[in-house]
Amino acid sequence: MEKFFGIDVGGTNIKIGLVTSDGEMLEKVKYPTTGQEEFVPYFISILKQEFEKYPEVKKVGIGIPGVISKDRTTLLEIPNIPNLNGVNLKKEIAGSFPDVFFHLENDAAAAALGEYYFSKWETPEHYIFITLGTGIGGGVIIDHDIFKGGDGNSVEIGHILVHNKKTLEKNIGKKGIMKRFNKLEGKFTSPLYDKKDEIQPKEIALAALEGDKLGIKIFNEVGKYLGESLVSAIRLFDIKTVIIGGGLAVSFEIIKRPILKMLNKNLTSYYTKNLLIKQAELGNNAGIMGAASLCYLN
Q1: Does residue 83 carry a pLDDT above 80?
Q2: Bridge partners of 243?
Q3: Do domains 3-114+285-296 and 121-280 have the same CATH topology?
Q4: 3-state DSSP call for residue 279?
């Protein structure tokens, strides 16, 4: 049984999982991303530690939060780690580990692929994948492979405009949700305001699931904006399955209704008769498992 490293590079932490070819995660560790003057030497030192523990690993998938060159070697725009912009990361790390194959991919696109290889349900050949979290990411799988677009960075759904002329991410990413939370203070009575200085969007979502009217109001709006964007995505890609993942996918049972309302209102029966909106199954491990799934591509 083959073993891979799946590496999820985030703005705060680098998460590394040892994943088997049948989808079992044997170990998971994390290292801080921040506080390092030079990312590449630090990243190589981390890899050396992991290869010392597991020398049998010869394939590594890496999910990166940003824009990557079409040949998947160079990091072009990495907002949370800007000193990586322009760095040919694949060349840098491959030079230190010449007998290991590395595959780089946008993290949301990798998570989308991971759902195909490692989730327990029988995924269709084509689907749209959305990640809800601090930001809003997206990926499209067509014929069981990542759709990359003309220059390699398609499906940046978080950056498309919605009707209020703001991007989807500005509306329903972490900052957008917290802005809505603060604006509604005084209009709703909620115990969430008792700890308003430390509250996080996920806590608001969990409160909504327990019946908190403030949380329900906020995540109904999240579903409305997401549904509006999905109308365009479904028509553009002609794909009728949408999978929603990321940390805020815990709100799925709240956001599903306004999403479907928006889709049924704005799509014809050609799209809606076989429409499926589903929560992703990989949960908090989606980043790691998605990165590991890249090892199947070569």
Answers
A1: yes
A2: 129, 278
A3: yes
A4: strand
Domain ranges (residues) in the chain: 3-114+285-296, 121-280
Nearest to 277 by CA among 293, 247, 255: 255
Compute the distance between CA of residue 20 and CA of residue 18 in angstroms, rounded to an integer. Answer: 7
> CB–CB of 20/73 below 8 Å?
no
In one-letter notation, the amino acid at residue 159 is: H
Residues 6+ away with beta carbon under 8 Å from 211: none
pLDDT per position as a tens digit, 53-65 = 999 999 999 999 9
List Cβ neighbours of 41 (8 Å cut-off, separation of 6 or more): none
- The Cα 69–Cα 153 span in angstroms is 8
Class of 3-114+285-296 per CATH?
Answer: alpha beta
pLDDT tens column, 252-291: 999 999 999 999 999 999 999 999 999 999 988 999 999 9
**Rounded distance between C-alpha atoms, residue 281 and residue 288, angstroms:** 13
The two three-digit tokens of residue 191, written as one number: 């115990």
H helix runs in the chain, sequence order: 39-53, 89-96, 107-118, 168-172, 174-183, 201-209, 213-237, 252-266, 269-272, 286-293
Query: Following DSSP, what letter does each residue of 135-147 receive, concatenated?
Result: SEEEEEEETTEE-
Q: Could you name the CATH architecture of 121-280?
A: 2-Layer Sandwich (3.30)
pTM of the predicted structure, to 2 decimals = 0.92
Q: At which residue do the structure tokens 């429409």 appear?
A: 275
d(CA 206, CA 162): 26
Instruction: Determine the Cα angle at 98 with ends 17 and 79, to 5°.
Output: 55
